[in-house]
Model the fold of this input.
Amino acid sequence: MRVTFLGAAGEVGRSCILVKGEDANILLDAGIKLGSVEEYPTLDEALLKEIDAVVVTHAHLDHSGYLPHIYSKGFKGPVYATKPTFELINVLVSDYLKISNPSGVKKGIVQQMQHHYNIVEYHKEFGIKGLKVKMVPAGHILGSAMIEVHDGRNRLLYTGDVNFRTTKLLDPAYTERLAADTLITESTYGGDADIFPSERSVLNKMAMSIKETLRSGGSILIPSFGVGRAQEVMLVLDDYMRSGGLPTVPIYTDGMVNKALRIHRHNVIYCRDELQKRILLNDDDPFKSRNFVPVDTVQLRRQVMRGNPPGIIVTTSGMLTGGPILRYMAHMAQNERNKLILVGYQAEGTRGRALLEGARSLSIGERNVDIKLAVEKYSLSAHADRPQLLHFISRIKGLRNIMIVHGEPEKSRQLMLSLGRRYNTTVPLNLESLSI
Done:
């Protein structure tokens, strides 16, 4: 096999890896990179004609958002993923096309794409022109998977985005009996300082901060990925309210958060057993809590923006690159009683990253908005941290080669150095090709 990196090497975003077998050429992911400038994989039309299939780890746009582009360019091959991944792709990609309106993408392309969907179950091997492929749970978001590719001689394992902690929604990534000659691993939090505190301690601190803001008459803004983090945050907040750890206030949900919540409910068999039992045995459906208030009218949105009554707003996008969060920020950022809580990764070049680095003014639409509300960050990441990545790597049998991607360059480099000389480890560049 030969591996060529068309995106996500030395960066976070536009994940796209070409794997060439003896007879097959497949893409592992086809993502975009959102920021001040939208970036795509380095995949020209000549190369696209050689692609036999695409295998997608999960629905986030940095792994799936290039699909409408390649199908608009005439690609007619199959795309493989789990059932929830396809359902979430339909929501995320449709929203992306509506907001970004990228050039060259045909109208109705999402409907056309669905004719090429091939649903895959976890642990069930399937073939693509001599390559044997299998997907195993990645623990990142609903339906997410790591991908194994085997050509009869060598076995490749690609993590996509991976999480090894139990969450409210999901079990950790599958790590039993994994074997591979070569690993392509993410490194979003692979740096020396990337050691997450216990989730319980983080949540308790966040709850205390939220309580203080609500008591002062302010509202809480939580921008989040519409898929995965948002639902996780909603269930956490609801649990705190049920236990008395937070006052009972409306948890307003806006944007694609609500569509994604319904998809989670319909695919609850992909969630933790505990969550399934709450619904099936105890008639306690956490996805339908009375505390959740969908913002489905302009009038309600205006009321929520006025903070009457104060509440918690969970909406997209997680890095403040677009979506309803910008409307809320434009109206609520100048009230110092309010608070913005960031719960996920903030990529370079995004408004969320700017706020973390101390920006007190943001450009939103055609105006500059002064930031007077408090800004806090609590790591509720769906990615593995450095110790978890190192432990995972140590458990893979027969591993010889490691390729580190999906991380800021310094974090990828630090993860490589921490692995020492036990493996043949590289941090590839985009367009670099390596044989395995």
About this structure: The mean pLDDT is 93. Residues 83-100 form the longest helix (18 residues). The longest strand covers residues 131-137.
